[in-house]
Design a protein that fits this description.
Layout lengths: L4 H24 L1 E6 L4 E6 L4 E6 L9 H30 L14
Antiparallel strand pairs: 1-2, 2-3
Length: 108
């Protein structure tokens, strides 16, 4: 028995529309990655567009720029991880996978 190509095509169109809707929702969602107890805060949206960087004055040590560099990397990675988890959760729920998409699927 061959699959109904019209039904398959309609399902694919519906799924594509859902993905576009979710991408819009992700773009409107704001997330914060933090490091050093909030010494560095990176704000981005769910589409991984970085919006701002906040650095508390006490995190700036002219004698030790490496620590600040590390804090920024940790905050960026934290923000990216939150974006990926949010995208996987939203896509998984949309596709009927309650736990989200399996690791490696739906990320950026």
């Amino acid at each position: 028995m061959q699959p109904d190509m019209n039904q398959l095509f309609q399902s694919m169109q519906k799924m594509q529309q859902e993905v576009v809707k979710i991408q819009g929702e992700l773009q409107q969602t704001t997330l914060e990655g933090k490091a050093g107890g909030g010494a560095v805060t990176i704000t981005c949206n769910g589409a991984m567009e970085f919006l701002s960087v906040k650095i508390k004055p006490e995190a700036i040590d002219p004698e030790d720029p490496g620590t600040l560099e590390d804090l920024i990397l940790v905050a960026v990675n934290d923000a990216m991880a939150q974006c990926q988890k949010l995208a996987q959760d939203k896509m998984g729920k949309s596709l009927g996978m309650p736990g989200g998409l399996p690791p490696g699927m739906g990320g950026y």
